[in-house]
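Hi all, long-time lurker, first post. I run a small reading group and we've been trying to get comfortable going from sequence to structure in the token notation. Rather than ask abstract questions, I figured I'd post a concrete chain and ask someone more experienced to write out its structure so we can walk through it together at our next meeting. Sequence below, copied exactly:
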Amino acid sequence: SSGGDKTIVKISAETASVAEFETIKLSATVENGDETVKWSTSDGSVATVDRDGLVLGVKTGMPFTTSQTCL
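-- Answer (accepted) --
Happy to help. Here is the structure in token form:
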């Protein structure tokens, strides 16, 4: 970001759930910065997430899907 402004990331949902073998699309917008968003999951055996924020439920569990900004 430029000019000392804080980078703000707004995610489409604070919490979401997805059933086994179903998908949900998360989205994030970056304000005050040129960064891109990188998605990740805490447990890929329970849910996967691709680079576009598409989450696939693999089995019952409670993983965390997070986003971070990358230059």
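A couple of things your group might point at:
The beta strands are 8-11, 23-25, 28-31, 36-41, 47-49, 54-57, 65-70.
The mean pLDDT is 82.
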